[in-house]
Predict the structure.
Amino acid sequence: MPINPPEPDLATVVVNLQRQLLEQQRETDRLQKQIARFNQILQDNVVTPQENPPLTKEDSLHKRFRRMKAPEFEGPTNSIEADNWLLDIQVILDFMGLTEHEKVLCASFVLKKDAQHWWMTVQMRRNVTTMSWQDFMIEFRAMYYNREILTAQQNEFNSFKQGSMTVLEAVKKFEQLAHLCPELVPNETEKVRIMMKMFRTDIAKQISAGSNPPTLVSDCIGQAIRAEYRINQDKEGRIQILKAKKENKDTVKQLQPRQNLKLYSKGQTSNSAQKFKQLGKNKKRKNATSQGQ
């Protein structure tokens, strides 16, 4: 008959459980310390990338401008070279849709060597922080354009007239000349005044007679186009009237010979009858005379 083992003492069981829990707690603490140590090692060895400072408005503007591959300018050997550079830059700046001062910032960014020295002298004698593109072009032309060329361009602009060109053709030429002579059109009002002198007299009169004289270039062009249309319509109407009169006159001329022929034929018939009648009378007289003898 098997002997059953003695039942464990309750106090002994409790002590053993406490010992096991204590060992588990120590193991947990040891593992947590290891994890913390590993995390520290990782943090010490990982290089945190340094954040780039945010781009300023000017940095972003120059970055966009550089992507356009704008030509640099070092100082020309002649006025034509300077004008070509200015035209190339103007196309890029207009395409980017910049403000007047932003155009100055970008254009001055690609000035090099002698041209850069010139720009530094401009900065020393005037405030360029609010300079407009118009002012930049005036300064640039005064430095790099030949005086004879400047005078010739100004004379051409001042004497330019619409002539036989359409309004749109004349405006296109006007804008090209105005671009070469920015000092002559310092503001919108002056540009409108000169443009009005450029238009044909009949067009300018219609614009001036209107109830809303133009104060903006866009308004001036719009009113000129409408005036030109009305003038052309009136001219076309007069041409049609003259054409109709000419056609009527030609028709009358074509009908006149037929009418004359009818009148002539009628006259000829009447004359023949009268002659025949007269012959009859003469014959009767002759017979009467013969009988009397």
The two ends are 217 Å apart (CA to CA). The mean pLDDT is 80. Residues 217-292 form the longest helix (76 residues). Residues 57-199 form one domain.
